[in-house]
Design brief:
The complex is a heterodimer of chains A (91) and B (400). By secondary structure, chain A is of the alpha+beta class. Chain A has one domain: Alpha-Beta Plaits (2-Layer Sandwich). Chain A is built from 4 helices and 6 strands, in the order ααβαβββαββ. Chain A has helices spanning 2-6, 9-13, 36-40, 63-71, and strands spanning 18-26, 45-48, 51-54, 58-59, 77-81, 86-88. In chain A, β2 (45-48) and β3 form a beta hairpin. The N and C termini of chain A lie far apart (34 Å). Chain B contains 15 helices and 11 strands. Chain B has helices at residues 24-31, 51-59, 92-101, 106-110, 113-130, 136-141, 143-153, 160-171, 178-201, 207-217, 224-254, 257-265, 270-280, 314-317, 352-369; strands at residues 8-10, 34-38, 45-48, 63-64, 134-135, 291-293, 297-299, 302-304, 309-312, 374-375, 397-399. In chain B, the strands form 3 sheets. In chain B, strands 1-2-3-9-6-4 form a 6-stranded mixed beta sheet. In chain B, β1, α1 and β2 (34-38) form a beta-alpha-beta unit. In chain B, α5 runs parallel beside α15 (352-369), α9 crosses α11 (224-254) and α11 (224-254) runs parallel beside α15. The radius of gyration of chain B is 21 Å and the shape is globular. The mean pLDDT of chain B is 96. The chains are: A alpha+beta (91), B alpha+beta (400). Chains A and B meet through α3 and α4 of A and α2 and α3 of B. Chain A: It holds the Pfam family Fer4_13. Chain A: Keywords: 3Fe-4S, Electron transport, Iron, Iron-sulfur, Metal-binding, Transport.
Chain lengths: 91, 400
């Protein structure tokens, strides 16, 4: 967990700490590159060639990540728990 | 070049003229992508003009909007923003925005499309029944977005004559006095408080009631003041921009008859046309809402120091030749159109999908139902708004 200690508090607050609680996926074909996710949870998402990409596929549970998925205007982000149940966005 | 040697340009570079973008932006993109500017009010700032840099300023967490609260932020209005989403950073900003974001997803907005089409067609029916000429602003562009946002929020559409006047305050710079702006905004708040009180008594199926429920279930998620500001912001900002853009887009089409003919021949091009018009029309008179660097950041060949404000020009970014080939021409066939007309990052327009849908419906209905739409006065006689944050027409007399 060295990586976690290397992060500043602000970064940790913004989500994206490697872990095994949640699995993040982004549908690159649906993503419109608005950058809301990367602005909301900067350590969990980044834009690669204008398309949102999770920095890690599996992360520690973090409300900022759930918020990013809920705030995506085209619902391109899906967050699932270990059992595969969708946590965000709401159906 | 050291910072003290840099020329400071007065910004905006020139008064707005229709939808012409000052050619100086293109020169800056080539020569000095980060330049020093001074706006009519507030402190000196950096202006970023290249697409990549503007996206960094808007999307990178090292640039803060919340930091502007304690500063004399550069602006074209005498008045400073006093509160609201645009003065917040994540995670505080996230707490409020997520409460409304889900009401504006593409999926939810699609459910409003049939009703929007119905309203648009009714408005055209009325214009046709009355006969030409008609003012497109008053009879079509204004009532369409107002009806849609009213029904979504749960605001009585028959009150529009009152709140629409007050809503000008959110896009006014000098068209209203500082006192008038403050007064109108207080009127909007008072009006919204009345609706909130009503829904507390008798909840209905609308966004006001849903947010009142959130507020009353958990005081930590939403304070009463935040509730009022959030709903007022959605009502006012939620229609002022689209009300302006429908005539703006119509103006561009009527002054580019070959483009209009393309849409008439193939209305399936309308969604692509709306994206291209969002890119092409420089809606803002000037860029504003500077972001403050929270640490030293290398940007556009310059070291922006912690605490310095940077303004990102959306209009310039949308004309960046590195991203958009032949950027000054209107092209509905662009293979990619990653314009940032709705902004970028955490503050990307929350109503973007709604605005897109409304603009698509509006242009589609106008193209299909008015095959000979034209200005009813010479183009030079059209009256343009002034003293506003946005470019737009006061009236647009049309015939068909």
């Amino acid at each position: 967990m060295e990586e976690r200690h290397a992060r500043t508090r602000a970064e940790a607050d913004a989500g994206g700490v490697v872990g095994d609680d949640w699995r993040i996926s982004v549908d690159g074909g649906t993503c419109i590159g608005a950058g809301i996710c990367a602005g909301t949870a900067p350590t969990a998402f980044r834009l690669v060639n204008g398309v949102s990409t999770p920095t890690h596929d599996t992360v520690e549970a973090d409300d900022a990540i759930r918020a990013a998925a809920e705030s995506c205007p085209v619902e391109a982000i899906t967050v699932r728990d270990r059992e595969g149940t969708v946590i965000a966005p709401e159906p | 070049m050291t910072d003290t040697q840099r020329v400071v340009h007065a910004y905006p570079f020139s008064p707005p003229d229709r939808f012409k973008l000052d050619p100086f932006y293109a020169e800056l993109r080539r020569r000095e992508p980060l330049t020093r500017v001074r706006m009519p009010y507030g402190e000196e700032a950096w202006l970023a003009t290249r697409y990549a840099d503007v996206r960094t300023v808007l999307g990178d967490a090292r640039f803060s909007r919340a930091a502007s609260a304690d500063r004399d932020e550069p602006r074209i209005s005498p008045r400073k923003l006093e509160a609201g989403l645009l003065l917040m950073d994540p995670p505080e900003h996230t707490r409020l925005r997520r409460l409304v974001a889900k009401a504006f997803t593409a999926r939810r907005v699609e459910q409003l499309r049939p009703r929007t089409q119905e309203v648009a067609n009714e408005l055209v029916d009325r214009m046709i029944a009355t006969g030409p000429p008609a003012d497109l602003v008053q009879h079509f562009a204004t009532p369409l977005p107002i009806t849609v946002i009213c029904e979504l929020l749960g605001v009585p559409v028959e009150d529009q004559d009152r709140f629409h006047v007050w809503s000008e305050a959110v896009v006014s710079t000098t068209s209203l006095s500082v006192e008038q702006i403050a007064g109108y905004i207080q009127n909007l708040f008072a009006y919204m408080r009345g609706l909130i009180a009503q829904r507390r008594q008798e909840p209905t199926e609308d966004l006001i009631s849903a947010l009142v429920r959130v507020r009353d279930e958990d005081n930590q998620r939403l304070s009463e003041d935040e509730l009022v500001r959030l709903l007022t912001g959605l009502l006012a900002a939620g229609h002022e921009t689209t009300v302006t853009q429908i005539p703006n887009f119509t103006y561009v089409l009527l002054t580019n008859p070959d483009k209009l003919a393309e849409l008439r021949a193939d209305p399936s091009l309308v969604p692509a046309a709306v994206e291209e018009l969002m890119r092409y029309v420089p809606l803002g008179v000037a860029s504003s809402f500077a972001r403050y660097a929270t640490e030293d950041v290398e940007l556009g060949g310059v070291l922006v120091r912690a605490g310095e404000p940077v303004i990102g020009s959306l209009s310039s970014a949308n004309r960046d030749e590195e991203v958009f080939p032949d950027p000054d021409s209107l092209d509905f066939g662009r293979s990619a159109n990653p314009h940032i007309g709705f902004g970028h990052g955490a503050h990307h327009c929350v109503g973007a999908q709604l605005a897109r849908m409304e603009l698509q419906v509006a242009i589609d209905v106008l193209v299909r139902r008015f095959p000979e739409l034209r200005f009813a006065v010479p183009e030079e006689e059209l009256e343009w708004k002034s003293g506003m944050l946005v470019r737009g027409l006061k009236r647009m007399p049309v015939a068909w």
